[in-house]
Amino acid sequence: MNHTDTPATNAPEELPGVVTKLFKGVVYAESDEKVWQSLLGLSSHVRDYVAVLGLDLILDESEGYAFLKSREDPDGTLPRLIPRRPLTFNVSLLLALLRGRMLEFDTNSSELRLIMTEQDIADMVAVFLPESSNEARILDQLGTNIKKVVELGFLRKLRNQPGTYEVARILKAYVDAQWLEEFDARLADYRASLTGAGTGTASGPDTTEGNLP
Question: What is the pTM of this model?
Answer without folding.
Answer: 0.66
